[in-house]
Design brief:
Number of strands: 0
Number of domains: 1
CATH topology: Sodium/glucose cotransporter
Shape: globular
Order of helices and strands: HHHHHHHHHHHHHHHHHHHHHHHH
CATH class: Mainly Alpha
Helix content: over 70%
Length: 554
């Protein structure tokens, strides 16, 4: 059981973050205040908020668990993300800030039409609940259950059976996180979110670095950090390769030049959950600096997320069974950290759970309020009504996520669940924005079709492997076997194929039935659009460092 001192530190730390966040966001009266923090965010707030919103227990549970099973390759998502953020800072962010938009679906109305805006908004709200919100609750509850040993407490105190204790403990964690994070998101809006991100993100990075160092020391077996490093390298020579076989289930080698760029570019450049921070920048330069700051952190993040998962296998030994890999990090914390420090680290990770959850809540509420409710139900609503609507929607979505979270138990790993489910949205959205920005004569009908048909094609691509197992199709006809073989490919390949199909289809549509005149993008910036002078060399440096990492760890 967790020591009383650790419990006290955990509760005090979380309460302090909530209080600071609410105080920092007091006095929000307009939609710009509530949804975009008054468009006054500075680069360091943006950078920390991007990282804290992104890094949560799906990393410390899912990604760390994947590393424990399969090695360093999963870190490719992190390093490719650094390059993606550079592309966003150079290209997408200036385009979006120049348009003066609140949300990304709003941009589609300017480029195509209102129907495109509504379709994208509807998809985003639904998948925010199914992916971002529910998975944070699921992974967060899994983490807290493991590190706090809640089932053991329930068995001892209330004499529950082990199975009942697992179910009850999970529900307590899910609803506890949902209620706690929901309260200060409802009250404070985006400003509350970014201030909580700042505190919790800094704590998470510092605490994660401490865990990594202590793990190397533990591997040194009394001979120190560098001896532990040598022990780790000797034991993981095969696992320290980034480029895997073409059919690797986690990150196939060929996907590094194809499919991985679809979800990564969508996530960092076209996902309201992330881009809301950069849309709230006080100037273009501040937004660009924030993205580069976050990209720099991304380059070192595998050291505190992925590497510890690999070390957990060595340190925990037989304590970590093959079916417990998602529990590797919480078990590692209990093994390594002394009383007091353990409480601080649990507070940091618990804080990251709250950061990601409240970020997703605020973004989903923003999209629903401004892209759906304000467009169809209440086009003339006042600023105060917009804020009120945002708060009501935030509450409803938090409850929906709490109800859906237990469903994720039925999937094979939380990180794979997130990535695969986002495929319904990421490939069609990326294709529509790519075509919309680069092919100005493609009409709205082509974009609408892509947004509606894309998820159906993705479903058709993936569903045969969900319906039949490999053993079941052995005695079936050749067509079924072929469909199953295709659907069993890594989802990153399906995303890339779908992206190509949709882009080619829209391009052909633009050739056959083009717009009479090229579409013009909105030009009504509300902030200073002067680019950061160092944007090109700093971005180039990040790309070069990423290439060096891949060359060294090929």
């Amino acid at each position: 059981m967790l020591h009383t001192i650790d419990v006290i530190i955990l509760l005090v730390a979380l309460a302090a973050v909530a209080v600071v966040s609410i105080i920092a966001s007091r006095g929000e009266r307009t939609r710009e205040d509530y949804f975009l923090a008054g468009r006054k965010l500075t680069w360091w707030l943006i950078g920390f908020s991007l990282i804290a919103s992104n890094i949560s227990t799906e990393h410390f549970v899912g990604m760390t668990g994947s590393a424990a099973k399969n090695g360093l390759a999963i870190a490719g998502y992190e390093w490719v993300s650094a390059v993606a953020m550079v592309i966003v800072a150079w290209w997408l962010l200036p385009t979006f800030l120049r348009s003066g938009i609140f949300t990304l679906p709003e941009f589609l109305e300017y480029r195509f039409d209102r129907s495109c805006r509504s379709i994208m908004a509807g998809l985003m709200v639904v998948f925010f609940v199914l992916t971002v919100l529910a998975t944070v609750l699921y992974a967060g509850s899994t983490f807290l259950m493991g590190v706090l040993d809640i089932p053991a407490f329930l068995i001892e105190r209330f004499e529950l059976s082990p199975e009942a204790a697992e179910k009850v403990g999970f529900q307590i964690c899910v609803w506890g996180i949902g209620i706690a994070a929901g309260i200060y998101t409802v009250l404070g809006g985006l400003k509350a979110v970014v201030w909580s991100d700042l505190i919790q993100g800094a704590g998470l990075l510092l605490g994660g670095a401490v865990v990594t160092v202590l793990a190397f020391v533990a591997l040194g077996d009394g001979e120190g950090f560098f001896a532990g490093t040598r022990t780790f390298m000797d034991a993981n020579r095969e696992g320290l390769h980034l480029v895997q076989e073409w059919n690797d289930p986690d990150l196939p080698g060929l996907a590094l030049i194809s499919g991985i760029w679809i979800p990564v570019m969508f996530y960092w450049g076209l996902n309201q959950f992330i881009t809301q921070r950069t849309l709230a920048a006080g100037s273009l330069a501040e937004g660009q600096k924030g993205l580069f700051f976050a990209a720099g952190i991304k380059l070192i993040l595998p050291l505190i997320v992925v590497i510890p998962g690999m070390m957990a296998v060595q340190i925990l030994g037989d304590k970590l069974s093959a079916d417990q890999m998602d529990s590797a990090y919480p078990m590692l914390l209990r093994e390594l950290l002394p009383v007091g420090i353990l409480g601080l680290m649990i507070a940091a990770v618990a804080g990251s759970i709250m950061s990601t959850f409240n970020s997703g809540l605020n973004s989903a509420a923003t999209v629903f309020t401004l892209d759906l409710w304000a467009v169809y139900a209440s086009p003339n609503m006042t600023e105060r009504q917009a804020v009120k609507c945002g708060r009501i929607v935030t509450t409803i979505l938090a409850i929906a996520a709490c109800l859906w979270a237990p469903v994720i138990h039925g999937f094979d790993g939380v990180f794979a669940y997130i990535q695969e489910l986002w495929g319904f949205v990421s490939a069609p959205t990326a294709a529509v924005f790519f075509v919309g920005l680069l092919m100005r004569r493609v009409p709205a009908r082509a974009a609408r079709t892509a947004l509606l048909v894309g998820p159906l094609i993705y479903l058709a691509s993936r569903s045969p492997s969900w319906i039949w197992t490999a053993e079941e199709v052995v005695n079936m006809n050749g067509l079924v076997q072929g469909l199953h073989a295709y659907s069993s490919l890594a989802f990153l390949y399906h995303m890339f194929i779908l992206f190509v199909i949709l882009v080619v289809g829209m391009a052909l549509w633009g050739q056959i039935a083009p717009l009479a005149e090229p579409a013009t993008l909105p030009d009504k910036p509300v902030i200073d659009m002067t680019r950061w002078k160092a944007a090109k060399p700093v971005g180039a440096a990040i790309i070069v460092v990423t290439l060096i990492i891949y060359i060294v760890l090929w």
